[in-house]
Here is the input.
Amino acid sequence: MKKTLYLLFLVVLSINVYAQPVATLSDLVAMVNPLIGTDSKPSLSNGNTYPAIALPWGMNFWMPQTGKMGDGWAYTYAADKIRGFKQTHQPSPWMNDYGQFSLMPITGKLRIDETERASWYSHKSEIATPYYYSVYLADHDITTELAPTERAATFRFTFPKTDHSFVVLDAFDKGSYVKIIPKERKIIGYTTRNNGGVPANFKNYFVIYFDKPFATAQVWHEKTITTDSLETKSDHAGAVVGFKTTKGEQVLARVASSFISVEQAELNLKELGNDPLDTIKQKAKLAWNKELGRIRVEGGSVAQKQTFYSCLYRSLLFPRKFYELDATKKVVHYSPYNGQVMPGYLFTDTGFWDTFRSLFPFLNLMYPSLNAQIQEGLVNAYKEGGWLPEWASPGLRNTMIGSNSASIIADAYLKGSRGYDINTLYEAILKNSEQEGPMDAVGRRGASYYNTLGYVPYDVKINENAARTLEYAYDDFTIYQLAKALKRPQAEIDRFAKRSQNYRNLFDKQTGLMRGRNKDGSFQSPFNPFKWGDAFTEGNSWHYTWSVFHDVQGLINLMGGRQQFVTKLDSVFTIPPVYDETYYGSVIHEIREMQIANMGQYAHGNQPIQHMIYLYNYAGEPWKAQYWLREVMNRLYLPTADGYCGDEDNGQTSAWYVFTAMGFYPVCPATDQYVIGAPLFKKITAKLENGKELVIKAPTNSEQHRYINAMRLNGKPYTKNWLSHQALAQGAVLDFDMSATPNRQRGIKPDEFPYSFSTGNTK
Here is the structure.
């Protein structure tokens, strides 16, 4: 009985915590829960997110800080105390942060140490939205509110009656500087704390103005308060300003930062104008509603709408703007590649290994002008650093594999993006394809082996070699596609066409799976298809075997035909979630997330297998894709703090949901095709950038009616298992007749299957 009552209590608590008003057509941001995914830890990711209080693609984000300085898990749902309110540029806890400092209001005894100044708080007195955050700090009897612009923010601290109200500025360790200017009610300074990807002169400069004169003003370093100066530079610098406040008195702070200079931070502060916090809040809300309103869903449950718009919110955060507007309104940026202030756009905080799959295709569909600016930023990154970034935060980071910048660049250009120097980008792609870079994750590790043998060998001390081979082969396909569009020499086109088939060199007919291969041509032995890592990246052979995005028919042929292929796909869900973690020496969180999902070897919490379900369409059994896609959406995505099934990863896992809910997915970027799944809602209206609308209707859709019985495109019967980007981009109406039972006669003919290089099925 006690257990039953306890479970009932948890259900009621969950409902109270996550209850959101049903959004009107003009207030979709009310459906977003920024706390989704925050109930995470290093050993188990339910998203590994934090509540990003920001504008879409904003240069600066803000967040409440519950973790210690330097902890990548800077906000966790289970935490009890808040240590400060931090400006953050963190893309994920694994990459950690840079350009970070915090403000913390306190009362009573002056405490600068982050643990001593921390305050208990409750989610019951916390309001978290994309455009506004508020929380009651119980130990200090203070309510803190903040609202952002792209490069600035306004704080409002509501104090009790006391002579000992303070705001502590923490510029963090690893080198920082602060200066208080009491006459101007102002603090300036910089922070240098970072986790790589920056030159030696990297600084994030900040400026803070208060609307109330300081009763006291002191700077501090390490844990010592300085009494004889208002300026300090040390390993760990900070400042504290004090006020005498009446009950309910509000003190405002206006904050901005810059990667260029304090003067530029002052310019960035002008984004706030003279607006009060409530106006900044309203403008930020309007900005979010504008972008979220580009896609309107009808039907479905409240929880499904909350999940959809929360995923859409996550899809509109990264890559973040890393550029600023100078005094003449020209676009400039501090270059994390050469340390100079340079002209033009730059974006950062994205890893292409994750986001080439659906996040960037989503931008190409819904935000092509923005993606053109991102492409211009890639031109600048290459010119300034000599290499294309594969994981940028803010500059080159040495993590993950592949040279998937080729996919990012090719997909944008092939879908019509223009206005930037594509020839320089193609030059950069060619350089990547032939050379190893200055670090493992730049250029192509093992390029000479790959280009001569057709694979990266297992036994030449290059880790994750099979995964590299498979991704290089796909990337070569995207280069082949781009080379054709740019009318490059035929020999060059043929070279990449041939290399795109290198995936074949790793297929082991004995097991029907991809397998590492030694330099002498023999397969690795022993071979355990359940072994994570080793020849693969954050996965095993059951996950990576499907990484032939561009030639699924070729993979079908290797497996012995469509029936064998479908049987192999089915096996992913029926084989128990066994694993071999010996390569890592412990069970990494990605393994645990697969294990507890109760979907066999299907590991949606990580990227390599996220496209796999759609492959049923290539083998004539699309209804199986329709079934499993709905299962994944229902079981692995929730509008709760534990609502993801693994790392959210800068919009990739969220964009998967957005696409899948719309009823199609870009299995192979750098083609014109989306592979059809089945829509989640009764109606979706997407407003395209060109003014056209994509309308998706499924009036009989329901939990039971998850299968496509028939489909029409612009009023005409449509039987193919794919949709053309070109057709959708011109505006289209898709009508789905949904059924409770599969239609086993639809989408079963080879000429209805999506594109494969081996067959050349069009577009």
In short: DSSP finds 20 helices and 36 strands in the chain. The radius of gyration is 26 Å. The first helix runs from residue 2 to 18. The first strand starts at residue 61 and ends at 65.
